[in-house]
């Protein structure tokens, strides 16, 4: 028996006694570890990488317009399900609970906006687009309580859990829970590649297929730009594409994002982790790899069913080393975008940047709460008054990192329509109705509080104290 086979045999016996998880989760976990040990990771031959053609990554503006016929639109939307990845916590922004309940604008949370958008479609066209939320064990209980407030809304909301896998102790390849750690820290959700088996294992996939649903639109719950798009859906239905990944042109802020390549006749995702060291700079360049994955994905439900039943979705494994109470552990994850190469007639669509508006930090919150955007029917739309297509770069110091601190430091969000960049360091507080233009740096001196007065207009200046305003 090889060393790896022994490891797997021991792991199977350890895992079999973990009562907290289902048989599906146990076998899914063992399969993932076995794949990892076999080192089946696909090595990319750099010389075989080709830039995808417009047939493979279809420019958004070449997609056919949808006929302006309410009956056609209703028929199209009735094929659709919206699924938001809702497994993340708001911890990096200093919030407890699911990230999707952070207030984005006008007192509305990410989840409120998603519900309002879909409700608007259901009411306008008389269709029934359901919303699915894929939770993790970290967000499940809170989300169930939160969705109760939408019971009177014109929208069916379903929740299901992604898998719960034990973290692996690196030293002896034992599941951490077997070592007597019974806290949440002993477990992890294995990345959003898990969306496909979890959709099937939860029974949701079969239920949707029985209702005649055909496509699922999957997106991160914190991407405000990921709204239902009829042109994309119409294109997929007409051309029988089983999978579509929305990509958008890279800027210098996105150099780490995965990109689409043509490789041995298939379209596939290339992530920075798969790139040999000597090619990393080339990968990050905007010249050769011009697009990146937004993680807005459109996938045919029958195809998901077929591939999950055949156990054919063997996405690249992302090893994620962590430390729990001083013990080195490993969690193995997969990404939903990497599944593209297993689907028939899979394509990318090169979409406008407006479809990628993620809120990862309070600097992003500043953008979407400002006059740079407007809100109507749950849709966050960019203000046409800004001439520059790019958003200003925002760099806020650690004093602004947590949402509560961020909100307390702004009496109101400044006007930033003409702002190019903002860098704030130190103990800075903003008054009401402040306007920022051009390139602005505000740096409070160490130990000093710097207050920007109400109504101040700061244009292309560096501010170090009240005398500079």
Question: Any chance you could write out the topology, listing elements then pairs?
Answer:
Blueprint: H1 3-16, H2 23-37, E1 49-50, E2 57-59, H3 70-77, E3 80-86, E4 103-105, E5 108-109, H4 110-125, E6 131-135, H5 140-147, E7 157-161, E8 165-166, E9 168-169, E10 174-175, E11 187-188, H6 195-201, H7 204-210, E12 215-220, H8 230-239, E13 243-249, E14 259-263, E15 266-270, H9 280-284, E16 291-300, H10 301-309, E17 318-324, E18 327-333, E19 347-350, H11 362-369, E20 373-376, E21 379-382, E22 393-396, H12 403-409, E23 419-425, E24 427-430, E25 435-443, E26 449-452, E27 457-459, E28 462-463
Parallel strand pairs: 2-19, 3-6, 3-12, 6-7, 13-19, 22-23, 23-25, 24-26, 25-27, 25-28
Antiparallel strand pairs: 1-14, 4-5, 8-11, 9-10, 9-18, 12-16, 13-16, 14-15, 17-18, 20-21
Helix pairs in contact: 1-2
């Amino acid at each position: 028996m090889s060393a790896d086979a022994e490891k797997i045999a021991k792991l199977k016996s350890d895992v079999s006694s973990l009562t907290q998880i289902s048989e599906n989760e146990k076998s899914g976990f063992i399969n993932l570890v076995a794949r990892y040990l076999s080192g089946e990771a696909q090595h990319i031959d750099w010389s075989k990488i080709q830039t995808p053609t417009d047939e493979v990554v279809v420019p958004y503006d070449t997609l056919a317009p949808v006929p302006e016929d309410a009956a056609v639109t209703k028929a199209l939307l009735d094929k659709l399900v919206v699924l938001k990845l809702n497994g993340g916590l708001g911890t990096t922004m200093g919030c407890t609970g699911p990230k999707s309940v952070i207030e984005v604008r006008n007192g509305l949370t990410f989840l409120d906006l998603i519900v309002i958008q879909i409700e608007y479609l259901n009411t306008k066209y008389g269709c029934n687009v359901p919303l699915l939320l894929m939770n993790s064990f970290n967000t499940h209980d809170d989300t169930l309580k939160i969705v109760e407030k939408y019971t009177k809304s014109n929208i069916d909301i379903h929740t299901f859990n992604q898998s719960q896998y034990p973290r692996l102790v690196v030293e002896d390849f034992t599941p951490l829970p077997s070592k007597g750690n019974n806290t949440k820290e002993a477990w992890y959700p294995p990345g959003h590649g898990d969306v496909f088996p979890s959709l099937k294992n939860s029974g949701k996939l079969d239920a949707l297929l029985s209702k005649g649903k055909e496509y699922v639109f999957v997106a991160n719950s914190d991407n405000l730009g990921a709204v239902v798009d009829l042109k994309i859906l119409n294109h997929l239905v007409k051309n029988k594409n089983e999978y579509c990944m929305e990509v958008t042109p890279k800027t210098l802020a996105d150099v780490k994002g995965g990109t689409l390549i043509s490789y041995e006749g298939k379209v596939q995702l290339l992530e920075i982790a798969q790139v040999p060291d000597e090619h990393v700079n080339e990968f990050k360049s905007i010249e050769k790899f011009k697009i990146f994955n937004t993680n807005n994905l459109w996938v045919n439900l029958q195809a998901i069913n077929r591939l999950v039943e055949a156990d054919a979705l063997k996405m690249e494994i992302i090893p994620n080393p962590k430390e729990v109470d001083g013990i080195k552990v490993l969690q193995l994850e997969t990404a939903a975008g990497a599944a593209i190469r297993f689907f028939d007639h899979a394509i990318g669509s090169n979409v406008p940047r407006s479809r990628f508006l993620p809120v990862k930090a309070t600097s992003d919150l500043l953008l979407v709460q400002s006059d740079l955007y407007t809100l109507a029917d749950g849709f966050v739309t960019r203000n046409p008054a800004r001439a520059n297509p790019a958003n200003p770069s925002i760099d806020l110091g650690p004093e602004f990192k947590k949402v509560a601190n961020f909100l307390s430091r702004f009496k109101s969000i400044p006007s930033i329509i003409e702002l190019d960049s903002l860098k704030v360091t130190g103990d800075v507080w903003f008054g009401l109705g402040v306007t920022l233009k051009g390139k602005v740096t505000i740096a409070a001196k160490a130990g000093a509080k710097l207050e920007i007065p109400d109504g101040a207009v700061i244009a292309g200046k560096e501010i170090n104290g009240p005398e500079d305003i």
